[in-house]
Design goal:
CATH superfamily of the largest domain in chain A: P-loop containing nucleotide triphosphate hydrolases
Strand content of chain B: under 5%
Order of helices and strands of chain A: EEEHEEHEHHHHEHEHEEHH
Distance between the termini of chain A: 43 Å
Number of domains of chain A: 2
Structural class of chain A: alpha/beta
Strand order of the largest sheet of chain B: 1-4
Number of helices of chain A: 10
Number of strands of chain B: 4
Oligomer: heterodimer
Radius of gyration of chain B: 19 Å
Radius of gyration of chain A: 19 Å
Number of domains of chain B: 1
Largest sheet of chain A: 6 strands, mixed
Distance between the termini of chain B: 43 Å
Helix content of chain B: over 70%
CATH topology of the largest domain in chain A: Rossmann fold
């Protein structure tokens, strides 16, 4: 752990979000520690995705405060939050379907000079630029790990669903974010692919990232998480280590209605 | 021969307009219906400056581009902040407002009569009175427009525009400030449409408001669609084809009144056929597979 950096990477303090009369998230407080896997579970409509939208700035909380690395993020726009170091995946993937596989990864790299129209116009030609060469190399090495390198020049929409999931993870990695939010990373995958995703998550933590996972698949969450939050109707009903959650009666009630 | 040079100069000007449309619609996925308004702003600014102050072409070109860019920013920032079709509606409104200004601001624009008597420019001591010299002059700007636009589109700036077109939220979720990209490309395209207007008025020598009506924006849109979206070469080919077809029809023996109607009919049929059989345009961005 770097000196002076808090163990706590993200903190939600009594965050609420209402849509009309519906309380999507209700006075939710949770804290996430660096370099661990945190899980978020709950039945449909519990507000899991809303929590992700609040953390990434796509929604603004009605009340409460969100701190990332100790900084308040009340009015930070989504693209700045990514640059600060939080990146998320989407359940529906949201790849750039009609762009090449490698371009999907390329777009994730932060601080690109050729994202400025002036550099594009008057700078050295992009095709010959150092930046492009370096980023293409980085993108290729990411794709190599996920076995997509030989498909780098086809359009993203022509990949299989499993491959698209890996491409999405590569795009997140390209941003260099330290906190990675994964929304249903294993949905629609077969058993073998789920294993692959789990090993990727382990590898991420090994590289020093922090992972926050939302999933319906309780087994998956139980097996990879260091700590779990349980959400029901926008409220936190339980939190703890997987074993504690497993034995928690409230959780059983939430899930089984027993 | 002189006629041919006249036609290719016209094509060159419309290549610039088609590129300006393609940048906005083909790359960024923004539906704009006001490219003809920017075209008109360039043309009117140049004509008014020339006749009232004898301003040099380059100065009026820059002034026109500046005014267009300013209008572009004013329209784009509020309407692009909102998701959905507001931008499209705002550009449509701008198109109608600008046309009505040309038509009704008589002290400045001479209303429906238009402005006459703009002489060909004097470049480095030579007046570009021949069509060949003016064609070369126009070609210079077309090449400039094409090469600068392709620089922008090929760089990661252009890649980001396509990403925004594909999925705005995902582009934001990888850290792109999407509003900035959208506003910049719209302003950039407005500048080229305006420069095309300057070239046009010095070439024809006159302007009237009816050259910059809504249907002109739609014509520019058809060129961009028929040529192919997200590919600048498509816009070049599209302009050549869609301007050549009605000209070729002139050689068929039929009265002018029918030929004019036929022109519109052909555009309509062309668009429908393209949408049915070749939605990616003559030269598309990628192969349909």
């Amino acid at each position: 752990m770097e000196a002076g950096r808090n163990v706590r990477i993200l903190e939600l303090r009594e965050v609420s979000k209402h849509f009309g009369g519906i309380r999507a998230v209700d006075e939710l407080s949770l804290a996430i520690d660096r370099n661990k896997v945190f899980g978020l579970i709950g039945p449909n409509g519990a507000g899991k995705t809303t929590v992700f939208n609040l953390i990434t700035g796509f929604l603004r909380p009605d009340k409460g405060d969100i701190l990332f690395n100790g900084e308040h993020m009340f009015k930070t726009p989504p693209h700045k939050i990514v640059n600060l170091g939080i990146c998320r995946s989407y359940q529906e993937l949201r790849l750039f379907n009609r762009l090449k596989v490698i371009d999907n990864v390329y777009l994730g790299f932060p601080g690109q000079k050729y994202d400025s129209i002036l550099t594009a116009l008057w700078g050295k030609r992009f095709e010959k630029s150092e930046e492009r060469r370096e980023n293409l190399e980085k993108a290729s090495s990411l794709l190599k790990v996920s076995h997509l390198l030989d498909k780098k020049d086809i359009l993203a929409r022509n990949l299989s669903f499993g491959e698209q999931k890996f491409l999405m993870v590569d795009r997140i990695l390209a941003t260099g974010a330290e906190l990675i939010l994964l929304d249903e990373p294993t949905s629609g995958l077969d058993a073998g692919q789920i294993e692959d995703v789990l090993s990727i998550i382990e590898a991420l933590v090994h590289e020093g990232k922090t992972v926050f996972v939302v999933s319906h698949n309780i087994e998956v969450i139980m097996s990879i998480s260091d700590y779990i939050f349980v959400l029901d109707q926008g409220r936190k009903v339980a939190e703890g280590k997987p074993r504690e959650i497993y034995e928690n009666e409230k959780v059983l009630q939430t899930y089984l209605g027993a | 021969m002189d006629y041919l040079l006249y036609m290719v100069t016209i094509m060159g000007i419309w290549v610039m307009l088609a590129i300006s449309m393609n940048l906005v619609l083909g790359y960024a996925g923004l539906f704009s219906l006001c490219q003809a308004a920017f075209f008109g702003v360039g043309a009117y600014t140049s004509a008014i400056m020339y006749l009232n102050f004898g301003t040099n072409l380059f100065v009026s070109a820059i002034l026109g581009a500046f005014i267009s860019a300013l209008i572009g920013v004013i329209i784009a920032i509020p309407s692009l902040r909102l998701k959905g079709d507001y931008f499209f509606i705002a550009t449509l409104a701008l198109q109608i407002i600008v046309f009505n200004l040309f038509l009704n601001w008589e002290p400045l624009t001479k209303g429906p009569l238009g402005i006459y008597g703009v002489l060909r420019p004097n470049i480095f001591g030579t007046r570009l009175n021949t069509n060949i010299s003016y064609f070369v002059f126009t070609l210079f700007f077309v090449v400039l427009c094409y090469s600068l636009s392709s620089r922008v589109c090929n760089a990661s700036f252009g890649m980001t525009l396509k990403a925004i077109r594909e999925d705005e939220i995902a582009a934001e979720a990888v850290g792109k400030h999407i509003l900035k990209f959208k506003v910049l490309i719209f302003v950039f395209s407005a500048i080229w449409a305006s420069l095309a207007g300057t070239l046009y008025v010095y070439f024809i020598g006159a302007v009237d408001p009816f050259a910059f009506e809504l249907h002109e924006s739609i014509f520019i849109l058809s060129i961009a669609i028929v040529g192919g979206m997200g590919n600048l070469r498509g816009s070049v080919l599209g302009a050549i084809v869609l301007i050549a077809i009605p000209e070729l029809l002139k050689f068929a023996a039929m009265p002018e009144s029918i030929a004019h109607q036929l022109r519109n009919l052909i555009y309509g049929v062309c668009l429908i056929l393209f949408m049915m059989f070749r939605p990616q345009g003559l030269i598309g961005e990628y192969r349909i597979d």
